[in-house]
Amino acid sequence: MATRASGTPSKAAVYARISKDTEGVGAGVQRQVADCQNLAESLGWTVADTYIDNDLSAYTGKPRPEYARMLADLADGLVDGVLCYHMDRLTRRPKELEEFVEALDAAAVKHVRFVAGHTDIGTGDGLMMARVMGAFASHESASKTRRMERKWEQDALEGKPRRSGTRPFGYAADAVTLVPEEAAIIRQLVDRFLAGESTRSLCVWLKEEGVATTSGGNWQTSTLKQILTSGRIAGYREHRGVKVAKAVWEPIITEEQHRQVLAHVEARKRSGRRAPQRYLLSGMLRCGRCGNRLYSSARRDTRRYVCQAGPDHFGCGRLTVVADPVERLIADAVLHRLDSPQMADALAGKVSSDERTAVLSQALEEDEAQMQELAQAYAAKQIRMSDWLTAKKPIEERIENTRRQMDRMNGHTALARVAGQGQELRQQWAGLNLERQHAIVKTVLDHAVIRPMTPGVRKFDPNRVAPVWLV
Ligand SMILES: [Zn+2]
């Protein structure tokens, strides 16, 4: 279950493109991807998939299969943010920019970031960038976009395949006809995955067997996971991440197997593997001048948290603090707090959390079932599109609300495990890994504001740190 702040992309796309103008072709694309991944990390986004197009032809209108796949994934809700090295990697002509903005609008995705580029309106590039930014900010979507969105929704509800993108593995180019050899591979992958084999090991196996992806790229665990967990292979049509209809194509695995795969993925998630953390207070510090998030940054061997300004950040860029003393101060305060009387008070009355979680998850299940019934009623033409859209709105809100509550409950459970253990944790602290330390800090600290430096004071001043406690 997501425990991130709402609005932070949890399945971002990294898009890179090799073209004639990229210096040192291979290295160029590696750097684009690596820089995007770093940006994702600093923003706290999770990358779900990487899309790389080889666009070496001089003809700029050449189709870009991976780009098309990304747009299709946006439409299907598999992607909720886009990272790209530079505007010029993403779109090659103004018309493509329009299409990209339309696709974003239709998918209600607003998170797009570039590693490089300027918002200087004076340059042609800056102008384009400003237009994109303007389009993201605008809440009105053009009627053309709405028509497109309806068409996509209509197709989805009728169980028809989406119209663009590379063909799905296991199916021919029409996305409906089975490719028997690939279907057999999918069945084997599912069996082995359910038997406990990791996606990494399965990717290695695919490579050894010489099995190619449909876009011709290398197998990545994210791509494989997307195939294994997709409703598509179990004969469901999904739209924006929700199963909306029985598909017109033949399933490769059974519904039962599909449910088992999802349960297996969920269980692995719960067993707790997350992206490695490099800074104890990543995402938890705010600038005392402008209120924006501070980012980790190392300069000349000194780790720091800084307020970043510039095109990809919105801070004032006028505040920096050396990481070490702040981290020591906060860790110390957290450990003290865990043993404080407030903590005992905060924990009282939260014992029945298991029971509460059960109630919440049942509510969630009922709402999700209702969503599906509605979609089916629409598909069977029992209700009109407008009624369907109106009816699903309150349910979606309820689902969102329940999810938030469940996240909070998870927080309580985590706290219950460490409350009163400050003394003990202090002795082990240095030996705990960063992820564990971060998790402990997060149980009690919402964030800390770093105040501006007092002019003339060179030494670290503890008064600059103002923690805002959760409990
Ligand atoms: Zn600032």
Automatic annotation (TrEMBL):
One Pfam family name from the record?
Resolvase
Q: Where is the Resolvase/invertase-type recombinase catalytic domain?
A: 11-159
- The Basic and acidic residues compositionally biased stretches are 150-161
Highest taxon in the source lineage: Bacteria
Please list the residue ranges annotated as the Recombinase domain: 168-271
Q: Which InterPro entries match?
A: DNA_bind_recomb_sf, DNA_bind_recombinase_dom, Resolv_N, Resolvase-like_N_sf, SSR_resolvase, Zn_ribbon_recom_dom
The region called Disordered is annotated at 141-164
Protein name, as recorded: Serine recombinase
Which organism does this sequence originate in? Ornithinimicrobium pekingense
Specify the taxonomic lineage: Bacteria, Bacillati, Actinomycetota, Actinomycetes, Micrococcales
